[in-house]
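Task 17 of the worksheet. Students: predict the tertiary structure of the chain below and write it out as structure tokens. Keep your answer in the requested format; marks are given for formatting as well as content.
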Amino acid sequence: MTQQSGTTTTPVTAATAATAATVTPTPTTSPSAPAPTSAPDTEVPPDAPLDTGLDPLDPLDPVKVLDTPGTDAPAPTPAPAPAEPLAQPFPPLAEPRPLGERRVWPRTFHDRLTAPLPGLKAIARFAREGAVRPGKDGLADIPRLPYEPAPLPRVDARTVAVTWAGHASWVVRVGGLTVLTDPVWSRRILGTPARITPVGVPWESLPPVDAVVISHNHYDHLDAPTLRRLPRDTPVFVPAGLGGWFRRRRFTRVTELDWWEAAELSGVRFDFVPAHHWSKRSLTDTCHSLWGGWVLTAPEGQRVYFAGDTGYGHWFSRIGRRYPGIDLALLPIGAYDPRWWLSDVHCDPEEAVRAAQDLGARRMAPMHWGTFVLSAEPVLEPLTRVRTAWEQAGLARGDLWDLPVGGSRVLE
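Model answer:
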């Protein structure tokens, strides 16, 4: 079994802002349109150093500067990246925060955006072109989508196993826990046609759920009907600003985290990490909660990275440097076409492979495709393209876990 040493923890302050950019957002109502979200501030002690807005992991890396609408001056040209990795130590991992801690967050997280929200011109173009669904030929391969439900593998406390239920929903068995990621067992979500493949794991076949992690609040990742099936004392780990949504639904063990923060449950560490995305569920809550991915670290040291929903960008290499030895990266490969509309918030297959390499992940399992039709690419294209990109990158075929919906793999 693949193992690595456990993670030591030393107290550090909460995460700082992702970028130093200022963005004037333009609200949008489309759950699949690109738009960002920000993360909550945390209380800062009086003697804390000034927050410059730079990434604390690599302050010499260039920061992407966003153009502010109405500003004539061009954005500063970022300094070229150094040819060799910077020989500076990274700060230690944050000490796990208390489970269920009540915290005060800012009203919005627009400061965390790494791309501007779409403006009126982009929205008008999107409405004019109407390229949100594949044509008849692109839907013709629905019967060929891989769907092979099977019983969950037997595991023990030292075993890591993953089962793809579809879209971004995984059953992750780690450190003796059963963890659900972005659980969506519903047949239909708001504004989207019904799922084109059934759920890969019947709800009644699940073992007791020990924890749930949520990446952000879009309807295809935060599904109220599915979450209503859970006992209200199920521990849930959510982005900053999203805890109130769960508490209003009477969940009693809700832990909200900022980027680079962690909590621990039964020896398994849950680290919340940045992503290139946004959040929104209504006309009035754009970027009122954060978004990101999760690094799950078992007591034995095995690591699984769940990316949630994200575009490609600098966060992957920084996550990989801060959490070395990722054994498996669960990465999105679908909902990417048209690129001019979705590139900031959704990886295409080639970018997902590059992200796995940036992370230093030993294996990659594709997700976020073949379940809901959210964009214009042919339904089977993400799978064929990710296989080709993996081969062209010279990576071992056995390390691409391109599972069918319902399929499982055990980390050995």
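Marker's comment: Residues 364 and 412 are 14 Å apart (CA to CA). The first helix runs from residue 120 to 129.
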